Amino acid sequence: MSTETQPHFPVMLPEVLAALKPSDGEVYIDGTLGAGGYTRAILGAADCAVVAIDRDHSALDMAAAWKDEYDDRLTLCHGCFGDAAALAAEAGVDAVDGIVVDLGVSSMQIDQGGRGFSFRFDGPLDMRMNQKSGETAADVVNGYGETELADIIYKYGEERKSRRVAKAIVMARKTGRIETTFALAEIVRAVVPRSPKDQIDPSTRTFQALRIYVNRELEELEKLLAAAASLLKEGGRLVVVSFHSLEDGIVKRFLLEQSGQAPSVSRHVPSLQDSPAPALFTMSSRKAVFPSDEEIKINARSRSARLRSAIRTAVPAGKEAA
Questions:
Q1: Nearest to residue 142, comparing CAs of 71, 35, 214, 84?
Q2: How far is it, in rounded angstroms, from Cα 211 to Cα 103?
Q3: Got the DSSP string for 117-141?
């Protein structure tokens, strides 16, 4: 089942371009190609090059149809953005002038019921961004123990009723495998009351948790951030658009630490240092940038977005502030 419910708007595009500042002759990494909104805008803003990465084969297949427009300025790479350094090296690029990532699931994936990302469509409980490898959400829901499920739903979905949800899942699968999005959503709705404050569907947090876990999204983000210092040239810009507190918290802590504005949380470095190492990044602002009211009216999915950016200093990689 494939259902398109709204156009695919690149979230906070003007703000992304303002932070990235595409210039002639420079090279950028778009770690989340998706429908190509950021990549095409960057290539259109300057005579530059983009290494576009996506783990979803369908995104790359779509991009291949318009790749000829950009000749050798566009390189398409299949893989996770956490492996950006290795993928860029394979493309013959060892340093870049900017990196941008739009975290989370894309509109294309949400709107394709057969991908299993959304409880709005009845489809197989998949949720893999790369449908050719890895365990599905159905594998997790039907194969993991109650405690494991509760921990996943609590950690990645911040669902306070995680134990209740896990227990209900385990009880329900005694009568048969839970195979579809509608089936899982109904199980969750039966045990999690709808909040009168936020009005979100009670199954939202459980679906988020499973998606993040199946795709190892937070681990990939941490890998990308760790690699950014080595990938970016002096003056290179890191731009991250996130959609929930777990992602944004990781980005915020990283930038504060690597700009020398927060005590270290490393297991290997004391939290208070007499001579802190030079900063690898300068934060564009300590505060996140949010979408405009106008954008939210046009694209409701942008309402939870926030952008953080930083500029690479001249300090060699390995001389971290944290």
A1: 214
A2: 12
A3: --TTS--BS---SSTTSS--HHHHH
> For a pLDDT cut of 90, what percent of the chain falls above it?
70
Dist. CA 31–CA 129, nearest whole Å = 13
What are the backbone dihedrals phi and psi of residue 31, each rounded to the nearest 5 degrees, phi first? -75, -10
Contact predicate 182/191, CB 8 Å: no
DSSP 268: T
Alpha-helical runs (H) found in the chain: 13-20, 37-45, 57-64, 84-90, 107-111, 137-143, 146-157, 162-172, 181-189, 204-215, 217-231, 245-258, 293-298
b (16+ CB within 10 A) / e for 154-172? bebbebebbbbbbebbbeb
Q: What are the φ/ψ torsions at residue 104 (nearest 5 degrees)? A: 90, -165
Task: Phi first, then psi: give them for residue 164, nearest 5 degrees.
Answer: -65, -40
**CB 187, CB 178: distance < 8 Å:** yes
The predicted-structure confidence for 90-145, as pLDDT tens digits, reads as follows 999 999 999 999 996 655 555 554 565 576 768 899 888 887 878 999 999 999 99
pLDDT digits (tens, 9 = 90+) for 147-164: 999 999 999 999 999 999
d(CA 224, CA 82): 4
Going from the C-alpha of 74 to that of each of 40, 257, 267, the distances in angstroms are: 9, 33, 40
The string of DSSP letters for 1-41 reads -----S--PPTTHHHHHHHH---TT-EEEES--TTSHHHHH
Question: Between the CA of residue 301 and those of 19, 79, 139, 161, what are the distances in Å?
Answer: 21, 25, 28, 25
Token pair listed for 284: 């564009």
Amino acid, res. 86:
A
Sign of torsion, CA 298 212 50 309?
A: positive
Strands 281-283 and 306-312: antiparallel
